[in-house]
Structures are given as structure tokens and as C-alpha cells.
């Protein structure tokens, strides 16, 4: 099949769909860049914060590298490199995984927990400033509904609106 043919077979976005897509991208960029900038001001990256907060919620403040990588949507090697940098800063430590001789556990250190405790109020305020306080309760409910719909595997054309 030629490239020309596959391009013509594409289901192009109509004006409303393209407008919605671009608006979604603008929102993602604005919120993520704002919260990332605010975290950077207190010495953390978004991935640092996600790793710290996830580990703080786990029993014994511990997770496997694989579970954490899956949660973040990262490869194990990418998270391993990031964990090495966090370990050098004393935020976490690695331990052998007793169930997987090739794997390791990520364990939140006392310094990592203190860092998270100090960062959490500023991060929550940042999330409020860049996202929560700009929306109505109805907007927030709509986002929850949309997120659930996008997280479910697609089952053919299951759009909630009739085709144009």
C-alpha cells in the first residue's frame, strides 16, 4: 500500500474535533509546565515527586522497580537511571527483591520522606493554582468521567455522540 493511499484513508478530524484536541494539548502543557516549574523551585522534578509520593503510600514505603515503572509509564531502564540519581541525593535506596533475583526494590529513605513532607504543601498549592481552583465542581466531575472513558480499552467506535 502506498503512503498516498494510507493518507487518503485517514479519518481526519473535523473542525470541532481538531479544536478540542488542540485545547486539550494546551491545557496539558499549561498545567504540567506550571506544576513542574513550581516543583523545580523547591528542588524536585515531577518524576521525583511521583516516585516519592507513590513510595510514601506503599507498605513499608517500598515498591518494586517494575511496579513503579509501570505506574509512571516508563521503561525499567529509564526509571533505573532516574532512581540512581535519586539514590545519590539520599531520597531512596535500592534493596534486592527477594522474589526476583534480577530485580530490585525502591525504598523511601527518611530523608526522602522528609523531602516529600516539606514539598507536599507547595505541590498541592501549585495543583490548586494551576488546575483545581480554575474549574467548577462540574468541570472536575467531567474530567473524572473523561479520564475513566479514556482509561478503558476501546471497543470499536464507542464515541458517546452520534456521527456527524
From TrEMBL:
Record SUPFAM superfamilies: Winged helix' DNA-binding domain
GO biological process: response to stress
Taxonomy, superkingdom: Bacteria
Domain HTH marR-type: residue ranges: 17-152
PROSITE patterns cross-referenced by the UniProt entry: HTH_MARR_2
Gene Ontology MF annotations: DNA-binding transcription factor activity
Renumbered residue ranges of the record's region Disordered: 60-80
PANTHER family, A to Z: MARR FAMILY REGULATORY PROTEIN, TRANSCRIPTIONAL REGULATOR, MARR FAMILY
Protein name: MarR family transcriptional regulator
